[in-house]
Design goal:
Order of helices and strands: HHEEEHHHHHH
Largest sheet: 3 strands, antiparallel
Number of helices: 8
Structural class: mainly alpha
Number of domains: 2
Shape: elongated
Strand content: 5-15%
Strand order of the largest sheet: 1-2-3
Helix content: 55-70%
Distance between the termini: 21 Å
Radius of gyration: 26 Å
């Protein structure tokens, strides 16, 4: 069954507000302050109309295709291509990521347990050393060195993971327009897991791109 104007409009309406904003800014040449509350009003073989602005003063932007399309299947394909181009020009992906993947695999859970154990040991050096001496029968010098090693490991992880958060994770969060509360959660997870979390989050992003 051939696509209709309504079919194409419906496919670009729900959950695509960010794409319409990209259209208004890139193709409509509006500022980000102007391109607010967009709504796709009409789709034809020649282009689209997007309304935007406050409810009391709505405006309409007409965005024309480079040439008239033969049918709405072709129009939809062109719009998808234009969506990706507009997002790319603004430094974004055309897809949004709103969920943050939490640790779920046994190896990930084990890592978190070890991390909290090292953190606890680093912040309670006297108690940890006493535990090694009294219950594990480790000598005092060896227990002290072990606690010092835990502190070094924790500091190393903090510096390394902070760098990875700033240089590797943040650009991905920006690209997929992750909401600020979710960005904060992702940053905390990355500070603990580092590359393990970044790779898990990147797999989620790749799956979203592939599915759609």
């Amino acid at each position: 069954m051939a696509l209709t104007s309504g079919d194409v409009k419906a496919s670009l309406s729900v959950g695509h507000e960010h794409n319409l904003i990209d259209f208004l800014i890139v193709y409509g040449r509006l500022s980000s302050k102007e391109a607010v509350d967009p709504k796709l009003e009409n789709v034809t073989l020649k282009g689209i109309k997007i309304s935007y602005g406050a409810k009391s003063a709505r405006k309409v932007a007409k965005i024309k295709f480079n040439r008239e399309q033969k049918d709405y299947e072709q129009a939809k394909s062109l719009l998808i291509s234009m969506t990706k181009e507009a997002s790319s020009k603004r430094g974004y992906s055309s897809y949004l990521i709103r969920e943050i993947p939490l640790p779920s695999k046994p190896i990930e859970i084990l890592y978190w347990i070890l991390f909290f154990a090292i953190t606890y040991a680093s912040f309670t050096p006297a108690e940890t050393a006493a535990f090694f001496v009294n219950y594990l029968h480790v000598s005092v010098p060896a227990a002290t060195k072990t606690v010092s090693a835990f502190k070094w490991i924790l500091n190393f992880l903090f510096v390394t993971h902070s760098t990875e958060t700033a240089t590797s994770l943040n650009p991905i969060l920006f690209k997929y327009r992750v909401p600020i509360p979710k960005r904060m959660l992702a940053s905390v997870l990355c500070l603990v897991e580092g590359k393990f979390f970044i790779n898990r989050f990147q797999r989620l992003c790749d799956s979203v791109e592939h599915q759609q």
